[in-house]
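SAMPLE LOG
Freezer: B-3
Tube label: C17
Construct: single chain, 224 aa
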Amino acid sequence: MKTPQLTGERGFTLIEMIVSLGVFSVVVTTAVGAMLVLISTNQQLQSEQSVMTNLAFALDTMTREIRTGYYYYCDSEANYSSSGPNNIFNNSNNHENIVDRNVQDCPNGRSPSTDNLQGISFYEGGSSITGATGARRIMYFFDGTDPDNKTIMRRVGNTEAQSIVSSGLVIVNAEFVVTGSEDLDNGDAEQPTVTVYIEAQDRSDPTAKSYFLQTTITQRTLDL
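STRUCTURE (predicted):
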């Protein structure tokens, strides 16, 4: 009879299996954790990019129209009913007739404690923007009357004002600093300048991180 030959090969012991499973678990846990961090970071970056893109678009729109406009008129109000028929932010009032060709500075910007509405009105630099015949006034303003839906509005002529930012954004704070709106004939040798400050938050961000943008615009037409 042939006797079985021992080859010297052995299987894994129980201790070796436990150690192997432990090392494998550590590696998998570390890899999954790193992947989750990467996914979370990517989502955060996409959210930030969306916020900044939206804000940049709104700011670029304002910049182009303000730069080519003239007869800058800056104003502020506590709410839509204050100042009665002279409130230029109220859709029921004739914005163009109230302002006409008047100009007005806001060298100190907006007072957060008293001004929930603040912005700039100006004659557009041509009829190509609104499609209207002849000059019409365009107005950009911060609307903070609703604490949960603060935004930046755009009003053309006497049409109803519309928000220019995404509904997913909350404009925490915005203000317009206007200087030099008077012309040289009235003793103002300074070229009209508008500085816009914006602080915004992503409505879906639980951390309520704020994003800040600022730009300074100089009127293209010489104020002589």
